[in-house]
Specification:
By secondary structure, the chain is α/β, with parallel strands linked by helices. It folds into two domains: 240 residues, 3-Layer(bba) Sandwich (Glucose Oxidase, domain 1); 34 residues, no CATH class. The chain is 23% helix and 21% strand. It has a nine-stranded mixed β-sheet, with helices on both faces. A two-stranded antiparallel ribbon has the order 2-3. Strand 11, helix 8 and strand 12 form a beta-alpha-beta unit.
Length: 278
């Protein structure tokens, strides 16, 4: 599958699907810290600690693993005390992390054929409205209109336009946080299972629609079904507008995708800089 995906590279156009790690990003899980531990200006203006003539910039970054564009590991969600593959949800320690299903297990995977389904363009709108649930019919309709099929092992990327809307709001972004967000309907789980999709990523915060379709059911039902029951990775906060615009221009919605997470041992998620090459 990886060899076949590499054959999709025709033009050499490269797209980063990561949003910036900066204070313009939607902050959901607490702020991040980015600071310089050493900078060239200080060594110019004061007695240098380095050999004469040498200046160095060095910095540190502290952030939640789900802060920016990221993958959820297969241990990110449990339900009724069980993780994917039957592992006990309590099999985790605060210091050493997960005993099973840590994100490091995917450090050499999540490379292959990427397929973009652009739902707003399919429906003729700039973005999907908050609370809109993407259905199997939407996925089939977008795929048919784009002339692309979803195959076994594909990494499916679904555009909602939600992240683009965030960055278009200049001053008051409160509307973004009120009223939920568009995302995957729980009805799409059988669709994804039948096509043997390896992973799915969206340009919203939680992948699935919010508010949830069944107010009386469990919270985050799509996560439970995808991660816990199917063992399917979920990507969130991906930046898809640039890639989507190019796909609409050349009508090519499949590409080579490299989206390997960081090798963070026993972690429940990882930032990622997904690279799509056409």
């Amino acid at each position: 599958m990886v060899v076949d995906a590499a054959k999709l590279i025709k033009t050499g156009k490269v797209f980063s699907l990561m949003v910036g790690i900066d204070r313009s990003a939607p902050i959901l899980r607490g702020a991040f810290e980015h600071y310089f531990t050493m900078n060239a200006a200080e060594t110019v203006l004061r007695t240098p600690v380095l050999p004469p003539g040498l200046q160095v910039n060095d910095d540190s970054l502290v952030l939640p693993t789900h802060f920016t564009t990221h993958w959820d590991s297969l241990a990110h969600f449990a339900y009724e005390d069980i993780h994917y593959n039957g592992f006990w949800a309590g099999d985790i320690a605060a210091i050493v992390g997960l005993a099973h299903l840590g994100i490091q297990n995917q450090a050499s995977s999540l490379v292959g054929r990427g397929v973009l389904l652009d739902i707003p363009r399919y429906k003729g709108v700039d973005r999907l409205e908050q609370g809109y649930a993407i259905t199997p019919e939407d996925l089939d309709g977008a795929a048919a209109k784009q002339g692309v099929e979803v195959h076994t092992g594909d990494i499916l990327i679904v555009r909602t336009g939600h992240m683009g809307w965030w960055y278009s709001l200049i001053w008051d972004k409160s509307e973004f946080w009120n009223g939920g967000e568009p995302g995957m309907s729980i009805r799409t789980i059988p669709w994804l299972h039948e096509r043997e999709v390896a992973a799915i990523a969206l340009d919203n915060i939680a992948a699935e629609v919010s508010p949830h379709e069944d107010p009386g059911g469990p919270m985050f039902p799509f996560h439970i079904q995808a991660i816990r029951n199917l063992g399917m990775m979920i990507g969130e906060l991906w930046g898809l507008d640039e890639l989507a615009a190019d796909c609409a221009q050349d009508n090519v919605y499949e590409f080579f995708l490299m989206a390997t997470p960081l090798r963070i041992t026993n972690a429940a998620g990882s930032p990622v800089n997904p690279i799509a090459i056409k």
